């Protein structure tokens, strides 16, 4: 593997039929970072990754390790060391785990190698099998793997592909707590040698493993920094929690009881109820907010964001 | 190696299959069949060669090649043109040109086919070159699924119509008929007809071995990956257009060779043998037998071609309907073809054996389909897909 490279995005803009999904994003990910991209649904996170990987047309500039990526075809961008996963694990269901990894390792293979049968397990494939913990399942059809295992297989495919930048779209969605923990540790390990960008809705996961965070909202970067910095940013609170909470110095019952803080903003917000529920123990003495909202969650979330 | 282990190792099983096929084709068939029936078998084996290519392109690559008649025709006409020139003798025009044409000498594009080496090479290379050109346009424009099938079909129609329009140089609707000799051998002689049969059988076996090697190579694995999730392959740094192109070109080559050998076996090539209907018939055989398995596709092609002769002798009018029905039934209810029956029966037995209710078998099949649908999020939902057939089991 060559040296670490960083990602530099300038003025990135993506529109579909007049709707601007990504609206002038500037984003720098330094080499070896473990960056989380968060933001409400529709903020443009996945579209941003689509643009970087060449899946959608975009204006602006995306440079990785000094090379301009925009305008290249998908497979050329992949060959310049950028790999991604999708929200739904996309593995080759009718091939074995080993075959999946072998294909991922082979984009640079010559014609003669391609026309011959695979003999044994290539060394990088064996290493990736160990790293993602699927060595025992090497000969299993990928379609029969559990959901979490498929996600790990995808990460393993990126490793054998030897990408220098991993763009992961919700890698822990649908995983159990233990699986999330294992995935997070895996990502920390991977980011020692590669740059990792993770789109994630799971705030606990983000808090545990992010080295830096970018918050996207309505196609723009709203805030950027460490987890603590981002959580303290009033603009972030506004996006996640609605207008009433912001500018209100005391986070009183009134604010929480207000309709903007009610179901609508949170229902859409990416924070998701499950994550918010987890934060409950941090505010044992906070009074329950008034009003008929599913308030415990709301209160907890606001408190959590402000108090961090 | 004991018998049970022999049948577990896919490679050993494949070689056993090829060996058994060789015995059947070279020993049993010539002894058991009359010259007339052996000649018919030679014709069926040509269809099976086309099916070998379809198995690769459609079964493994998901490319529903509904226009293989084009390549079959290119190979067939290339061979027939040479044989007509040779039949006519030096300095003479082929018979139909003397009848219909106004030309006093061979058209320029006929002349190279007077050379036997050129003509032989052209039977394979011409279809492959045409497929390479067409394919690179089609796959780079990302034409796939049903659109690809319709386009292939349109090409077959266009080629047949063009041939019909060129009465003076291609023989028009009649095609190139009444072929007498094959590189100096008289085709009316039963001994030579037998030789043609042996050549066809040998070429078929060779193609099966070659294509099987291709299917089990790294390329073969990649082709299945492209079939099941083209976008994902692109993100791994491959250009799926090139992967599909190879399968398409190889399939065109097998079809061209089949067409070339069909000519001495049958003595004629005409637009009616390469248009839309024969193009669909090539696919039906593979579909009925099992498109993802070489053994299934080859036996299916021979079986359907045999059934066509047998049934159309008895019920000439009903055959077309029966054939259409066969295609629909195979695709709708047995997408893996007849070879998949064994697996289904085994699964059913296993589920009964373990005391599970019979519904389990449906669960198994639905599970396969459902799993694949999940993988489709990247966006090739319209793509043709073969049923779950383990890669090991071909031939």
From TrEMBL, chain B:
The chain crosses the membrane at residues 12-33, 40-59, 117-139, 145-164, 195-215, 245-270, 282-307, 319-345. Its main location: membrane. Residues 363-375 have a biased composition (Basic and acidic residues). The keyword Transmembrane applies. It comes from the Bacteria. InterPro entries: ABC_transp_permease, ABC_transptr_urea_perm_UrtC, LivM-like. The keyword Metal-binding does not apply. It holds the Pfam family BPD_transp_2. Keywords: Cell membrane, Membrane, Transmembrane, Transmembrane helix. It is a multi-pass membrane protein. It is found in: Cell membrane. Residues 350-395 are annotated as: Disordered. This is Urea ABC transporter permease subunit UrtC. It comes from Streptomyces tauricus.
């Amino acid at each position: 593997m060559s040296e670490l490279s960083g990602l530099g995005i300038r003025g990135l803009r993506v529109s579909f039929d007049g709707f601007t999904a990504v609206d002038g994003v500037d984003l720098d990910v330094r080499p070896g970072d473990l960056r989380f991209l968060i933001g409400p649904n529709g903020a443009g996170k996945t579209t941003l990754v689509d643009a970087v990987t060449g899946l959608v047309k975009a204006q602006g500039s995306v440079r990785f390790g000094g090379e301009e990526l925009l305008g290249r075809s998908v497979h050329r961008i992949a060959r310049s060391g950028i790999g991604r996963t999708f929200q739904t694990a996309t593995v080759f269901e009718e091939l074995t785990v080993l075959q999946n990894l072998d294909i991922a390792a082979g984009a640079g293979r010559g014609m003669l190698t391609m026309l011959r049968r695979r003999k044994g397990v290539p060394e990088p494939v064996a290493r990736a099998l160990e790293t993602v913990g699927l060595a025992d399942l090497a000969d299993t059809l990928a379609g029969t793997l559990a959901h979490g295992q498929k996600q790990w297989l995808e990460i393993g495919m990126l490793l054998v592909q030897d990408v220098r930048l991993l763009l992961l779209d919700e890698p822990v969605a649908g995983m159990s707590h233990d699986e999330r923990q294992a995935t997070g540790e895996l990502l920390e390990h991977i980011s020692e040698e590669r740059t990792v960008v993770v789109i994630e809705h799971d705030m606990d996961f983000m808090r545990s493993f992010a080295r830096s965070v970018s918050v996207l909202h309505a196609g723009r970067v709203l805030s950027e920094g460490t987890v603590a910095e981002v959580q303290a940013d009033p603009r972030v609170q506004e996006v996640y929690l609605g207008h009433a909470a912001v500018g209100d110095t005391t986070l009183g019952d009134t604010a929480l009881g207000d309709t903007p803080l009610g179901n609508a903003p949170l229902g859409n917000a990416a924070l998701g109820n499950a994550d918010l529920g987890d934060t409950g123990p941090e505010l044992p003495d906070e009074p329950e907010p008034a009003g008929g909202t599913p308030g415990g969650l709301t209160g907890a979330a606001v408190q959590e964001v402000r108090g961090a | 190696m004991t018998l049970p282990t022999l049948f577990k190792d896919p490679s050993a099983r494949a070689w056993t299959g090829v060996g058994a096929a060789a015995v059947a084709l070279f020993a049993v068939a010539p002894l058991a069949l009359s010259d007339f029936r052996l000649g018919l078998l030679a014709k069926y084996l040509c269809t099976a060669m086309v099916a070998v290519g379809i198995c690769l392109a459609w079964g493994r690559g998901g490319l529903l090649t509904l226009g293989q008649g084009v390549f079959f025709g290119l190979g067939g006409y290339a061979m027939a043109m040479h044989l007509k020139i040779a039949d006519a003798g030096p300095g003479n025009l082929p018979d139909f040109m003397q009848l219909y044409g106004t030309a006093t000498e061979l058209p320029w594009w006929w002349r190279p086919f007077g050379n036997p080496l050129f003509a032989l090479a052209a039977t394979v290379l011409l279809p492959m070159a045409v497929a390479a050109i067409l394919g690179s346009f089609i796959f780079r424009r990302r034409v796939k699924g049903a659109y690809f099938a319709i386009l292939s079909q349109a090409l077959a129609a266009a080629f047949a119509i063009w041939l019909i329009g060129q009465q003076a140089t291609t023989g028009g609707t009649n095609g190139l008929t009444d072929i007498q000799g094959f590189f100096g051998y008289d085709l009316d002689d039963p001994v030579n007809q037998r030789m043609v049969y042996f050549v066809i059988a040998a070429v078929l076996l060779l193609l099966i071995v070659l294509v099987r090697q291709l299917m089990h190579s790294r390329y073969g694995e990649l082709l299945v990956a492209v079939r099941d999730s083209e976008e994902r392959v692109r993100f791994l740094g491959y250009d799926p257009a090139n992967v599909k192109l190879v399968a398409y070109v190889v399939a065109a080559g097998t079809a061209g060779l089949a067409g070339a050998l069909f000519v001495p076996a049958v003595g004629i090539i005409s637009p009616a043998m390469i248009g839309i209907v024969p193009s669909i018939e090539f696919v039906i055989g593979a579909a009925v037998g099992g498109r993802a398995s070489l053994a299934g596709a080859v036996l299916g092609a021979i079986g359907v071609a045999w059934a066509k002769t047998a049934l159309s002798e008895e019920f000439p009018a009903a055959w077309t309907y029966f054939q259409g029905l066969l295609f629909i039934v195979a695709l709708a209810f047995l997408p893996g073809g007849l070879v998949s029956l064994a697996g289904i029966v085994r699964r059913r037995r296993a589920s009964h054996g373990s005391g599970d209710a019979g519904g389990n078998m449906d669960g198994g099949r639905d599970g396969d389909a459902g799993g694949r649908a999940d993988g489709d999020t990247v966006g090739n939902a319209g793509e043709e897909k073969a049923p779950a057939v383990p890669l090991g089991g071909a031939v």
